[in-house]
Design goal:
The chain is α+β, with helices and mostly antiparallel strands. Helix content is 31%, strand content 8%. The protein is elongated, with a radius of gyration of 21 Å.
């Protein structure tokens, strides 16, 4: 993923920096406006980074859960 900053001038989106030369023509893009979309994106990323279904003592008992070692 490549992020390029830009702004909306009232009629169109204007890029504030050049497009890297390795991006081919007709590459699909997605434009996010304002902070609401950024918050939504961060919330989705947060869901991906949360451990799902791990025991509450996983970090303390890592060797037990991963390697079968006795609990400390």
């Amino acid at each position: 993923m490549t992020i390029i900053n830009g702004h909306y001038d009232g009629k169109r989106v204007v890029l504030d920096e050049p497009v890297p030369t390795n991006i081919p023509a007709d590459t699909p893009v997605r434009v996010y406006f304002g902070d609401e979309q950024a918050r939504e994106l961060l919330a989705e990323l947060g869901k991906l980074t949360r451990p799902g279904g791990l025991p509450p003592d996983f970090s303390e008992q890592h060797d037990h859960y991963v390697k079968g070692a006795p609990r400390r």
